[in-house]
Amino acid sequence: MSNLKKFLWQVLTVVACLCLIILLISAFSDRISPLRSTYIPYLGLFFPFILAFNAAFFFFWLICRKWKQVAVFVVVFIICSGAIRTYFPIHSETKNIPENSIKILTYNVMRFENLKKHTKENPNAILQYIIDQDADIVCLQEFGTNSKDKNLLTISDVVTALEKTPYHHIEYLKTPPTKSTFGLALFSKYPILSVKRIPMESEFNGAFIAELDIDGRKVTLINNHLESNRISEDERADYYDLTKDPNTQKLEAFTYMMFQRLTPAFKKRAEQASIISDVIKENTNPYIIVCGDFNDTPISYARRKIKGDMKDAFVNSGSGMGVTFNRHRFLFRIDNIFHSKNMKAHNCTVGTLRNSDHYPVWTYLEFLD
Predict the structure, then answer these.
(1) Who's near 305: CB < 8 A, 6+ residues apart?
(2) pLDDT (tens digit, 9 = 90+) per residue, 62-72?
(3) What is the mean pLDDT of residues 243-265?
(4) Model-wide pTM > 0.90
(5) Residues 350, 359 contacting (CB under 8 angstroms)
(6) Do 277 and 180 have their domain in common?
(7) Mean predicted confidence (pLDDT) in 348-360
(8) 1: pLDDT confidence band, cut at 50, 70 and 90?
(9) How far apart, in whole angstroms, are the C-alpha atoms of residue 57 and residue 277?
(10) Burial of 247: CB neighbours in 10 Å, binned 0-12, 13-18, 19+
(11) How crowded is the C-beta side of 107, counted as CA atoms within 13 Å?
(12) 289 and 312 inside one domain
């Protein structure tokens, strides 16, 4: 082997090792709070891309029959298997849903298509989707109605449309609510015994904890909308343009802008996640469900902190990436349904309706005792 060829192989090996190290850090980056490290959360954000790059290296070594390198990659993939399964679970569909199950839907509705009126002749697509799903419990984020203009969607329209879930609570995130309301909502077929807002500093985001009586079972439910990244539609459009036509100068400016947006949001969500985690630890009911728009990816500190030792419905019964955000090629799963271990998820599904910037997520939860 010539000296040049040997040198190139050595460089390639060093690059591959660095990629493996980055993959390992990325896979376990959700253990480190953004309040302690500014840059580590970004490795979790880009985990699927880092994994794909390492997979390409793996197949390269495999084609070249470099068995030692292949073995090293296999070992690292095994170490990272928990993160890989979290991001890309694979499960078969449950054909017969157990009778002892409830259906729960979580959906960031983006103010129902700018408060589009709902009528039988011209239904609001988002509201109609919720009706058609016939879920037992519906948790909504970015819930919006209008109290002044009858040509727009009103709270009465929503309550009437969701008559099959007669128990409801609206948590307004602006106090007092303006004529165009904004907040979180819960609609349920089961009685809501109590509701309490979870205190956290945020202008547009928040969470509340509710207690439900489900056929004699006391169930705690937490509906979340964690801190948003505050990326405007124009900035998202810039990112979309970059994916079609990369430009070095524009990419540099966009990267700087994203860093300015994401870093404070990472830190704010870390604070909010700690607050919600403490609320969960104080819960005394045997059953708990935590859902909503987390605005963070499957490999993130906020998600891991809130999940704790609960089960993730999509990880345990869904398949694929389960992308829940659907605008401008920001392809991430940021909406979740968690539940206590005495429940089992079946067929967690990400819907396909694109009328909001989020897809709806629903699952069946079986009571195991």
Answers:
(1) 270, 273, 274, 276, 277
(2) 999 999 999 99
(3) 70
(4) yes
(5) yes
(6) yes
(7) 96
(8) low
(9) 38
(10) exposed
(11) 33
(12) yes
